[in-house]
Amino acid sequence: MNKLLFLFIALFFASTGRSQNSESSNSSGLILTRKGVEKIQANLGQAPLFDTTLQQVKKDVDKEMAGDIEVPIPKDLAGGYTHERHKKNYATAQKAGVLFKILEEEKYARYIKEMLMEYAKIYPNLPLHPAERSYARGKIFWQALNDSNWLVSMSQAYDSIYDYLTAEEREYLEKNLFYPYADFLSEENPKFFNRIHNHSTWGNAAVGMIGLVMDDDELVNRALYGLEDAKIDKDARDNDGGLIQQPGQDAGFLANINEAFSPSGYYTEGPYYQRYAMYPFMLFAKALENKRPELDIFDYKNGVLIKSVYALLNLTDADGEFFPLNDAQKGMSYLTQSVVMAVDAAYLYGEEDPSLLAVAEDQGRVTLDDAGMAVALGLANNEQQEFIKKSIELTDGAKGNKGGVAILRSKDYNRLYSLVMKYTSQGDSHGHYDKLSFSFYDDGEEVIQDYGFARFVNIEPKNGGGYLKENTTWAKQSIAHNTLIKNETSHFEGDFDTGSKYHSEKYFSDFSRPEVQIISAKEKNAYPGTEMHRTMVLMQNDIFRNPVVLDIFRVDGEVSSQYDLPFYYFGQLIDTNLEYETSERLEKLGAKNGYQHLWKEAEGVSEGENLKFTWANNNKFYTISQVTQEEDSIILARLGATDPEFNLRRDPVLLTRKKEVENAIFATVIEPHGSYNPVTELGNNSYSQIKKLEVVLDNEEYTGVKITGYNEKQVLIILSNQNNSPDLEHRVRINEEEFSWEGPYTLIEK
Amino acid sequence: MNKLLFLFIALFFASTGRSQNSESSNSSGLILTRKGVEKIQANLGQAPLFDTTLQQVKKDVDKEMAGDIEVPIPKDLAGGYTHERHKKNYATAQKAGVLFKILEEEKYARYIKEMLMEYAKIYPNLPLHPAERSYARGKIFWQALNDSNWLVSMSQAYDSIYDYLTAEEREYLEKNLFYPYADFLSEENPKFFNRIHNHSTWGNAAVGMIGLVMDDDELVNRALYGLEDAKIDKDARDNDGGLIQQPGQDAGFLANINEAFSPSGYYTEGPYYQRYAMYPFMLFAKALENKRPELDIFDYKNGVLIKSVYALLNLTDADGEFFPLNDAQKGMSYLTQSVVMAVDAAYLYGEEDPSLLAVAEDQGRVTLDDAGMAVALGLANNEQQEFIKKSIELTDGAKGNKGGVAILRSKDYNRLYSLVMKYTSQGDSHGHYDKLSFSFYDDGEEVIQDYGFARFVNIEPKNGGGYLKENTTWAKQSIAHNTLIKNETSHFEGDFDTGSKYHSEKYFSDFSRPEVQIISAKEKNAYPGTEMHRTMVLMQNDIFRNPVVLDIFRVDGEVSSQYDLPFYYFGQLIDTNLEYETSERLEKLGAKNGYQHLWKEAEGVSEGENLKFTWANNNKFYTISQVTQEEDSIILARLGATDPEFNLRRDPVLLTRKKEVENAIFATVIEPHGSYNPVTELGNNSYSQIKKLEVVLDNEEYTGVKITGYNEKQVLIILSNQNNSPDLEHRVRINEEEFSWEGPYTLIEK
How many angstroms away from the CA of B582 is the closest CA of chain A? Predict the structure, then answer.
């Protein structure tokens, strides 16, 4: 192409509708900058992780390009043919663009051009996708969310070949494809585009990124600040029942950053959706940093985007799998592509933290851009340092004042034990009714599990891969979690609007001593008139072989009620001192609020002794010891009732039920204590080390719990229930012995 | 010690009660020979696997020796303190003996001597172990079996320090400990010692090995040929209900070799007990080869001991875990110590097969003796070759004429699919009522499982680690297996004596074509008057993405009956075309014969179409396609009913039931076809490739089954039901098309 002609045409277009400061040739690059390309080309062969990723991507793209380009008329749901084909298309086009920039082989540019031309051919006449299940239907896909994914990738692909195309080709594509596409996602779908929600972040990024490529400030501003005059019914809801818009809420990318992340980087929907939302947040941020550096996007809100990467990495177990808080798929981990991108970006645009290199090494690939090359070079120079997962608190809420999540960690014989306690706000439409719930991990294995969601993502035979009705009837309900349920009713009566008004409150925490870490929180709104107060301690102590969890759950109500506290263990019962009866036929545990999904396998009534319940899972032994009162019911139940499509796992639960009481205290120890080897057939330490667990004091002011080991060692913890001031002095007498201390708790070991 | 005095004493003892050809100084060595020691010492530092094993053993022994020697008065069952202490003692003493020979550090000899002296102090006054549950109680342990384990190890320990001890010390030990110990295990326990059973093999080896050390031919002969005049009640039974002695049976080590192994090396109790029995067989054989080379023990019965090692290695899945035929613990693998020993011995005393080196490498350690050094040197020289698991048939029965086991294998994309079909004899007291049952493996994962046993070995809280009553009521019953059950009654009505009289018969097999491997067998005695005929094909074909199993099960009865065919899958239902109803409460599937342990979760009635049942396990998709007739019941059930101690896993089953028929045919395809990745959230091939499965012909003479794929390709198999001659010509007409072939089957692909 004649360069002069090109320049002329470019200038012509630049002068019509484009902002004045734009570079006509688009050469600064959206994600992969010109400087980045130069650095990459100079370092090829020097940074193994970059090279292997590049080779892998080239292999994938070349294989895909060996076939014909297919742009079918949209028809299928997730998992179906047209859905998967269009996903493959945008993913391949984006990668081909990277290859074109780095390797400068024209075939990649030609491939992208041909594909985009095919899309431009069909797009103007495409109706809405025929599937009607989404509140915001797409055109290429069944939901606008997937259409946004498409545009985020295709913006990059288009950016890569921008200079390769003729002005006429660009005009054709922009007029027939990109402008109408961007308008469809925004102006024509305000309910989708103008929310505080991960869907909108995708939409914002899509519109903003194509705006940056086309250097159209109007589109970029639409993305950053939302639609100005969106007409949205104030009661409009999405498919999950979430309210589309809170009154007076801002919209757009910056508002989503403001609202979605707490100052500590926690994303209110939880880590599973955070890792998904990270992609548009970080990618659009990278594009803005490259094309609109004056925005200083990575410093926005005290650098919360970089902080959010650390929050996300800390929300994983020892294997890097995310804790399945709220709606979440188990097994999703920081190995996923969006987190690869986030980690590489946090490295380059943050402080080049060498501990991020260790995560990148574990991920085994990098992004093929400036950030990925920086990471790969860091690794090539052996600069990585261990990413140490420490005990942390992550606040929830845009201002950090809506409760939070605490992760307590304890390392022992190279195993990392993690206790996750949740005292957040509702978590938007993906939130569960799980106030003060927790889960507990033994390295990469769940000891006490959070169920996650009821959904088989992208497995078409299971409801097209979408949420199952059991997500509402089971997974979101309180009984599906390791927390207190009053009168077989979920928190906030399972009402989303009510739940969204409130959040739990941290009472106190202390992570200063590695052998005794403690988190305490209260919830006063889940059941009006009833205060729930849970204190959890992760401790190492001479009594025990491994770190254990001490759980003290107080409930203070006004009227006589039934209180259930379930523990969702995995595996098989090995031993218990409970005298229980099993059934000749299995009945459901209840009629509604999730109880209808549990079969009651056995029930026993306490005689007021400690309950001991030992189970084995993955060849390890665990015991729950619990203080019980006479007439407490102990129920062994199993999931799977009222499940006509076999959508639920058949997981077991141990549940303690106190009937007709106003107040109650549950004191429980969860104790990992032994292991078994099926090859040597040797079991060690199949018994609990706890001789006795006692509530030695419990009144409005103070609660004292004492553990006595078989080695006669003791540990006593006393909590101040009403005042969490770190300075207040306390003095109590227990069995003739006097204790005094400062602050909300004391712990005495003997 | 004065050498002359030593010689004098040695000669004195040699002349009193010892055979004339004995070497006074015992220097030839029982397991670790003098030549072996020299070779080891010369090669230390040259054979890494030997060196690391030696270091590990030294570390273990030194750690153990840092504490005091404890020889407590026996009291506990398996898993309890005294049990584990005595186990630790003999294991440590044996290892210390090896270290003394190789490293020549006196502390090891002193340690063994002191320990043996402690045992010699208590043994003369020891009563029977207080636990009364064994048919053959021990003194150190609750069963004589464990006492034998002790003596097998202690014989080696004693051998190691034989020359280190004074003659007086030896006399003291032999008189107070070893002679009474050997007599207790043999003459005082004929029911234990004189059986054809792995217990007796241990007893024989124990008595024989101490006999070899003490060079006492009488003891050695007692071990080799059994007690001459054993008085055993002919109806005596062991704890498992097994008959102690069949009429006219020989006894002793050689008789056990004769009877226990088929000519192909299959051990009738199955691989789990084989790997256990291997230890005394191989160890005593090694001792005999060293001390009584004239016996040529490794050539005995055409070298069956070496063959048995190959049989055992072939009875494993892709991870080296044993197929859990009969009573068996899952997870037990060829990594276990007894198989390390067997493999090393098979290498040295067999043909130095380089493929055994690959197994040894996987095992990661060697025995610290002549055999282990030979293996370690082979590996140091990089002589190992892959141990290829091929399709094989292993005959059952001492003469190889009592049915057998076939393992069909197919490799695909680096995954090894294994189909295990069992048409053996009863399998002695550890046998299950599982005629013509099968299991199917996708690499190291069970697709269609064999339950194994109901037992938690060495986990004391579960019945002291012993067999659970559910082993009889569930695990042994026919309904616990993937085979046909008539009228809800187990094969042979679950009667051991009846079952022990019969065995299934192979009908034909053909492993000559890798893409179509076939095994066919018949069972005529499990239900008198009813003939069962199962043909299983492991095939790769253009229709399918992976190897599939075609299962054709014919049953030919005399009176109208109910026939059930279960498939024990793992994981969760994804999709089915079955119209079924689930229950508001769960009822048991039946009242007895194992049916009382199943909860009926759902039931549907066939309308005569193909049943399609797709499930996911470990992120893989599988489908069962089955030809059904109108009115067939399809039942989804789950284990766990009538299980008051939660001894059973909650595994699911798909069961097809034909009611009120005399004859029936079940034609089924088990099809692995896709996978899912929870990190990328991509599922591929979640649907079966089979469009239609048909029985196109079925009469007394012939059965024809046709599979049609969605790609319209077809495969048709025709079986001759009455004549398995390889030469006979057949000619049949199906839908106007004529087929002719030679031999028991033909397979046509279109």
Answer: 6
